[in-house]
Amino acid sequence: MTESGAWWTLLAAPAMLFCLAALAVAANSVLDARDAGRSAGPAAAMRPFLALPRALLTQPRRLPAPDVLLWRAGIAIVPVAAVLSTLVIPFGNVAVADLSVGVLWFNAMEVLTWAGLWLAGWGPNAAFSLVGGYRFLALGLAYELPLMFALISAATGAQSLRVGDIAAAQQGLWYAVWMPVAFVVYLAGVLAFGFLGPFAYPTGRDLAGGVLSDASGVEWLLLQAGRWLWLAAGAAMAVPLFLGGGAGPLLPAWAWSLIKTLAVLAVLVVAVRRLPLVRADRYVELAWVVLIPLTIAQTLVPALVDLAR
Amino acid sequence: MDVTSTVLLVFLGVPALVFGVLVFTLNSMARVTFALLASLVCVGGVVTVLGLPYLGMVIVLMMVMEMVIMAVFMIAYMMNPAGLMPMSMLHNKRGALVISSVVFAALVAGIFVVPWPGHAGALPRDTTFQAGMALMGPQMLTMVTLGFVLLATMVGATVLATRRGRYDRFGDDLDQRPARDPAGGGVGR
Q: What are the chain A neighbours of B31 within 8 Å (beta carbons)?
């Protein structure tokens, strides 16, 4: 059974999220180095973190008449929402706050990214940046509904919105096994709300970086951190939703949580690197014509199983 | 109601009102939209503190999506160029003042006139289930009807708004494949 943690978990959960995100960034960099034929050692892993001091020291760029307030609010929302989403994610048997509407909380925090990225695109008063923000909304309209149905499938299976209950309801058989469509759609959703890999459309090269094009220094750093934090948070949430949480033989619950989270994160990093960029207009048709009917049918499966029980 | 809840209600209720006022005093479409969003997020928090976390979180979730989409449309369709110029949310000032005063007075009067029911029995552990039963139990027919009406409205509005029909897509004999669409889709129909 999942229980709410002591006060210090409030600090530990974000710290672990940062570590996971840093690990994903380092792994991505090592794979980059290997692909480029450089040595894939610790130096390659540290390489992206050199951008940290550089970003902190960079002189900020400003175009005429930016909406600084909305810009800063938007940029802050992305990483802050990612950190807040971890409140309900159990690690082993402990969550910071195992809310009765945990799934909804995660979903609401994830949707805040919509507001954050659009504002980050709007703020600088620059065309490419604004187009980047609009692109994320187009992508959002495509990925959000299938993702919601994927979350609803897991919640329906456990007949609860409490993340701990969902993990506990998977005694014997993971939801990933008998709800594979929901699992895959959820993972695609994670890549999408992290705007990484195939869903890096809002930051596309054809837009000179899109929402990132006019972000410099700390702003750039926060947006980049936000996307990797979201990837890590999504990977951590996949474990209680679809992979049985901390359940497993021999090892303690926290160890299983960690192993499963790292495995999902590895899969996501590989997906980020392997899959080609997809335009929002193409993905929106796939999402609405194929994924929404599929995920609705997927939601029907646990509903029927629950009725038969 | 305990002290924590009361403090939380004040800390959520006052910003909700402040952002609500800002909606009518700010002069940028984007700022107005997001002031409204901030106000509604505070309202979601208030509903959560009042013991309906499901409805509270749904308000936050839905309003974020709705307001962001609304920002796009408001900026696109504002009368001045693209909603990018300074603007005001106040129109028909005298009439609006009268109507809003009357509505406000009626709602405040309602607070004091309505005989609010007291607590009967203990609070349920999880109010989500009660909210679901209240909506989906005796009101199932209403909800189903509402669902169909909403869907029919959306489909109808889209059909009325679009200039193109199936003959434009599939040709006069409906045998043209792939369909002739202005934008390429992802599934190659």
A: 67, 69-70
Closest CA to B45 of A130, A259, A105, A235: A105
Residue to test with chain B: of A112, A291, A306, most B Cβ within 10 A: A112
Count how many domains chain B has.
2
pTM: 0.91
A113-134: per-residue pLDDT in tens? 999 999 999 999 889 999 999 9
Residues spanned by the domain of B161? 139-170
Return contacts of B157-165, CB within 8 angstroms, 24+ apart: none
CA–CA dist A133, A116 (Å, integer) = 9
As for the ipTM of the complex, it is 0.90
B61 inside 8 A of chain A by CB: yes
User: Would B182 be classed as within a structural domain?
Assistant: no
Same domain as B88, residue B24: yes
**Residue ranges per domain, chain A?**
3-308
Q: What are the strands, taking DSSP E only, across A119-210? A: none
Q: Are B13 and B75 in the same domain? A: yes
Task: Provide, as residue numbers in chain B, all residues whose Cβ is less than 8 Å from the Cβ of A134.
Answer: 72
